[in-house]
Amino acid sequence: MxxxxxxxxxxxxxxxxxxxxxxxxxxxxxxxxxxPTVPVASGEARTLRQARMLAEALGPAGPGxxxxxxLDVGCGDGSxxxxxxxxxxxxxxxxxxxxxxxxxxxxxxxxxxxRGELTGGGLPFAAGCADAVLFGEVVEHLVDPDGALDELRRxxxxxxxxxxxxxxxxxxxxxxxxxxxxxxxxxEVSLRRIHGRPGTEVVGHLRLYTARALREFVAASxxxxxxxxxxxxxxxxxxxxxxxxxxxxxxxxASILLVHARKV
Length: 264
Fold this sequence. Notes:
disordered N terminus; Rossmann fold; 28% helix
């Protein structure tokens, strides 16, 4: 899920680009995320859990309950937004991204897409126009996460819902890796290649959160945290996936953190 040079992508989506030569110029973040070989879809398990949490909060659209406007900010190729639209039956889901390439792909999956950035002039929406914002695995890519949440808060109506997800720095396996002196999964020290941690795919993470830090950060940005939940990570080796699903019962240990917050 891409969104502006200060944080365009979705967590957990790998880069298939070949490593750059050591003497090659380092691309800017915008160049990195515009690379067509970088997938812009995220894990389906996370997407479903996040959408179901929002569906529970919004309730069904129908007589006496008008359809809600949901902005999928950082929609990427639209795959997550399409899944969410199926769960949020009757509500309007609008995909928002800065990348024209991502929006072209998203338009095949989502009925409504809009180009917009969190930086500069902000999103092309009036204040208080949205009932909910899906912000799935974008915040870990941002240079300025504070400004991003300020902008999301601006477009939400009072009492509107923020559904934010991001990888967990303190996931159960990262705790073991750190004890062994190994760089945690999800963390990166270079946009060229992976150093010091498991895996081979560069995903462009700039910031990582524990459950406590994420809760405090969201609350300090003018939101009331309603719930923190966990979701599994599709990149966990198959033999360990049952344990990863079990860890979701304790969000502070889960691979992916899901936060439901409301604008106050």
